[in-house]
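Aim 2 progress update. The chain analyzed this quarter is reproduced below.
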Amino acid sequence: MVTQLQSPEKATIIYPDDNGEPMSDNTEQFRLIVWIKENLELLFASIADVFVAGNLLWYPVEGNNKIAQAPDVMVAFGRPKGYRGSYQQWNEENIVPQVVFEIWSRGNRLTPMLQKLRFYEQYGIEEYYLYDPATVDLTIWQRREDRLEAVEEVNGWVSPRMGVRFQVSETELQIFKPDGTPFVSFVELAQLREQAELRAEQERQRAEQERQRAEQERQRAEQERQRAEQERQRAQQAETMLEQERSRSQALEARLRDMGIDLNQL
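Predicted C-alpha cells:
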C-alpha cells in the first residue's frame, strides 16, 4: 500500500480569518448588516443545521487562500451552528453558502461589486441580495442553472430558501418572516419584550383583581348563606317552642278535664 504524502506547500497554506477590510464603512451599513444577520439567526435558532454569519471569509477552493469573499451576511443550509474563524468549504462537506447579502455603501466601487457578483455566480450561490440604503434600492439575483439572473419584481419577493418576504417602500427595506411578522432591531425587540412583559403584568394584576372580587363575592355569598341558615334555625327554634307550648297547653287541658274542671265554664 502506497501512502501519498501531503506536499509541503499545501501543508503550510494559511487561510486568514481577516482580509484586512472593515466590516462596514458607516453606521447605517453596520446597522443593516446586524439587523439582517441577527434576525436570520433568530429565525433559524431552532434549526440545528442552518449556519448564519456576518462578514466571515469564505474560501471555496482548498489549497488557494487567494480565492475568498466575506459576504456581509451569508446563510449555509445543511451546516451546523458554531464557531468558525472562516468558512472553508472543503471542511463543510463542500456545501456552498446558498444565500448572501451585501449592503452597498459610499465606499463601494462598481468594479469590486461586479467581481463579487461573478464570484458568487461562479461558486454556486443560489440567492444574492444587494441593497443600497442611500437610494433604497434592492437588487435580487436567483440562480438559474449555472447563472445568477436578476429578479424583475423584488416587492413581495419570497426567498425560496429562507421563506422571508421582501418589501421596499419609499424610505426603507422591510423583511418579513414566514409568519408575516417583520424583522426588528434589537432595540425594537427589547421594547416589544418590555411591552409584552408589561401587558403580562397588567393581565396578572387584572386576574388577581378578578380573583379578589370573586373571593369577596364568595365571602358575601357565604355570609348570606350563613344568615339564611341562622334565620332558618331561628324559625325552626320558634316553631319548636310553639309546638312545645301547644303540647304543654294540651297536656294541661287534659289534666284539668281529668280533674272534672270544664275550661269552658271558667
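Confidence is low (pLDDT under 50) at residues 1-9. The chain has four helices and ten strands. These observations will guide the mutagenesis experiments scheduled for the next reporting period.
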